[in-house]
Request: fold
Amino acid sequence: MISILTAKIKEAERIRSHVFVCVLSLPLSGLIERNLGNEMTISAISAILSGMKAVPVKFPSGTGMFRAESIEADAVLKRLGIPVPKRTLTGTLPKME
Reply:
């Protein structure tokens, strides 16, 4: 009985949290669209930004995390005044011989 009650409380907390995120995202998405001059919808902006990926790359000397190139995403970030992440996130590229 206690585990059922605990599960229902956790479910209610999850629902409240989900609603909070949804309500918060609405004005935030409008703000982002306006900052880009209403040229793109939030769906288009999201699709562009989803192209930014951190890719693990293995070398004999170890593994590094590198940002996949996304010219469109870089342009969106620059227009929003957000610094574009460095290409190398962790690790270093091996020296070419």
The first strand starts at residue 54 and ends at 59. The CA atoms of residues 33 and 39 lie 7 Å apart. The radius of gyration is 20 Å. The chain has three helices and three strands.
